[in-house]
Structure formats: C-alpha cells, structure tokens
Amino acid sequence: MDDGRRTDSAPLRAVINLGNAVLAHGDPEDPRGVSVDLARELGRRAGRTVELRAVTAARDAVEALEAGAADLGFLAHDPDRSRTLAFTDPYVMIEGCFAVPGAAPATVADEADRPGLRIGTKRGSALHLHLARTVGNAELVPLPEHPLPGEDPALDVITGIREPLTAALRDAPGWRLLEPAFLRIPQCVAVPAATPAADLDALSGTVRELLDSGFVARSLVADGRPPELAATPAR
Q1: Residue 235: what pLDDT?
Q2: Predicted local confidence at residue 97, as pLDDT
C-alpha cells in the first residue's frame, strides 16, 4: 500500500480477530466492528476489493500475517510481535484489567503478582505476552478463548479487556474488577516486518487521517463503543 490510495488488482487480504469484541465481533461470514470498518476503508482508498479472514484469537492473526496469508491485520503493538511484524500508529487504545473473587487478597492491580496466586490469561494475547515478561511471583495459567469469571475455581485472578470483562462480571456475582488497569494497549494496523518503510509510513499516515477525520470515533459509536477509545493521532 504505497499511499493508501494505490490501485491494485489484487484483493486486500485483512485478518480480523473476533476474539477481541471491542474491535470485531459477529459471525466469520459477516464480522462487524471498527477493525472491519478500517479494513474496508483502507481497501476503498487503495482501489482494491477486500477479503476478510476471521479468526478467534490474536495468535491466529499473527500466524496468518507471518505465513503470508494476509496483507494486514489489527493487533496490539507488542515487543515480542515486533520481531516478525511492523505496526502503524494506534487507532484505538484499550485497557487490560484483572478481576478477582470478592474474598481474594488482592485489592488493587499492583497486588496481583503474589507467590501462590494463579492468574488466568489467554495464551498469545497482548495481556499474556506482557505478563509473561513482567510477572515474577504468580503463576500464569492459559485460559479458554472466552473465559467466564469463576469458570475455573482454581484461578485466583483472570485477565481481560476492560469492556468485555466488565460485562462478564455482571453475570459473575462476587467477582470484582481491580483498579487501576494494569496495561494500556495500543491497537494498530499490523503488516509483515518486510513491508517497505515508505509503505508503512504511508499506512500510518492514513490511520492518522482516519483518526483526524473522526472516522474511527464514528465507527466506534456506530458499534456501541465509547468514542473515547479512539487513539490520539501521533504528530
């Protein structure tokens, strides 16, 4: 994508992660959300048709990009992923939070890394990658793709994105969110690391344009999300 508006006969293949409902949700055949809207707008500006490939976990999106099965994806910027992927400026900022049973000893997020505590986190997610680098005392335990608080009574803490985790807690009496969020997560457009720097710069420029124009905020609102999740354009 040279300038975000290049005419190209090949479809723009975008991998969409349905595992993060803030960004995308719905059926694989008909996904919806801000990342879907961005993929279609990027294709429109490039004069290319868009092929959406839906997956259910971030690690599957990473693998699709690494294997050359997708041209771009929508992922959290993480140092571990930067070995094989390159990232634009963020278009959305979300937060990673801990949730604990009401009787748990942890009262704030900073107290979750304790010896003997078992923290459930989705393998390969940005939250898991961050915690694998930073947790030194608690044990990290892989969670299923769509965990529910209390589903595994052996877990002392579970992780999740603030909005869907808060919604899940409404059906889990006795569980509570720990504040503050332990991680702010920049959500970016990701491309293979071999993408030419000029193409990546142009793509980042297009993301900034879509933020400046209000496209991202409008897409979030249309999907029932707070417009405040839209990132502040980098200057």
Answers
A1: 62
A2: 96
* pLDDT tens per residue across span 188-233: 999 999 999 999 999 999 999 999 999 999 999 999 999 999 999 7
Burial of 176 (0-12, 13-18, 19+ CB in 10 A): middle
**What gap in Å lies between CA 233 and CA 20, rounded to an integer?**
22
Structure tokens at 147: 């965990």
Task: State which residues of the chain have pLDDT below 70.
Answer: 1-8, 145-148, 234-235
pLDDT digits 0-9 by tens, 35-49:
999 999 999 999 999
Length of the chain: 235
Task: Give, as one character, the DSSP assignment of residue 66.
Answer: H
CA–CA separation, 20 vs 102, rounded Å? Answer: 26
Taking the complete model, does pTM exceed 0.85, yes or no?
A: yes
SS (H, E, C) the chain: CCCCCCCCCCCEEEEEECCCCCCCEEECCEEECHHHHHHHHHHHHHCCCEEEEEECCHHHHHHHHHCCCCCEEEEECCCCHHHCEEEEEEEEEEEEEEEEECCCCCCCHHHCCCCCCEEEEECCCHHHHHHHHHCCCCEEEEECCCCCCCCCCCCCEEEEEHHHHHHHHCCCCCEEEEEEEEEEEEEEEEEECCCCHHHHHHHHHHHHHHHHCCHHHHHHHHCCCCHHHECCCCC
Per-residue pLDDT, 177? 92
* DSSP per-residue letters across 190-234: EEETTS-HHHHHHHHHHHHHHHHTTHHHHHHHHTT--GGGBPPPP
